[in-house]
Specification:
about 130 residues, alpha+beta, single chain, four-stranded antiparallel sheet
């Protein structure tokens, strides 16, 4: 079986294009930010959430960087650049905050996961 030079050239172009596409996908995945959020809620409804300044003080004293602290309804949301920072902050806040608060870590890693959870949570009716 003899392979023509034209077929060999097309094959090599396809291999180079595949390698470049793979490199782009690896670069894109490396540059993705995987934000993470801590949500602090009081156990007893009607109790106030801790103020952002005290949370900032606890995190700063332990060298933990965060992007923002935002009160929203009865929840205090703290955004981080990574889930590692969020986990470290959760450990610090578990130690330093008084009993009576739920501290939940939420990774905001992909829009696909949020859409899938929305699709799973909605009821489907046929007929």
């Amino acid at each position: 079986m003899v392979i023509s030079p034209l077929a060999l050239r097309r094959f090599s172009y396809a291999i180079v294009a595949l390698m470049m596409f793979s490199a782009l996908i690896l670069l894109w995945s490396a540059l993705q930010h995987q934000e993470s959020t801590l949500a602090i809620r009081p156990v007893i409804q009607g109790t106030s959430v801790p103020d952002g300044f005290s949370i900032w003080h606890h995190l700063d004293a332990n060298g933990i960087r965060f992007k923002s602290i935002t009160p929203q309804d009865d929840v205090l949301l703290i955004k981080f650049d990574s889930s590692a920072q969020s986990a470290a902050a959760k450990a610090v806040l578990d130690r330093t905050l008084p009993q009576g608060y739920i501290i939940a870590q939420q990774d905001d890693d992909s829009h696909v996961a949020s859409w899938m959870s929305r699709l799973r949570d909605t009821s489907h009716r046929f007929g």
